[in-house]
Specification:
The chain is mainly α. It contains four helices and no strands.
Length: about 90
């Protein structure tokens, strides 16, 4: 195999890797375990929300019966803040 073909294959492989890792949603084990008791946890990851929206959703889920320890709730809110929060529009 010539050098040019090898470089092309390596670059294509790198591009595929970068595209795939960029497209892969970040997930949280605490969210997957806690939220999936009532619904598919994937709905949590469908769209970014503001910090206030996440706080209202957490309040509503607890009102509907979500059992979550304070430390787990903190972890969930920190994860959502880092990975799934958008600026207010």
């Amino acid at each position: 195999m010539n050098c040019r073909k090898t470089v092309s294959i390596l670059l294509c492989s790198l591009m595929v890797f970068l595209l795939c890792t960029g497209c892969s949603p970040r997930r949280s084990g605490v969210i997957d375990r806690s939220c999936s008791t009532c619904h598919d946890a994937s709905v949590v990851y469908e769209k970014k929300r503001t910090q206030g929206e996440w706080e209202r959703i957490m309040f509503a889920m607890k009102a509907r019966g979500l059992k979550i320890a304070p430390e787990q709730e903190r972890q969930v809110m920190e994860f959502l803040s880092r990975s799934y929060t958008r600026e207010r529009s």
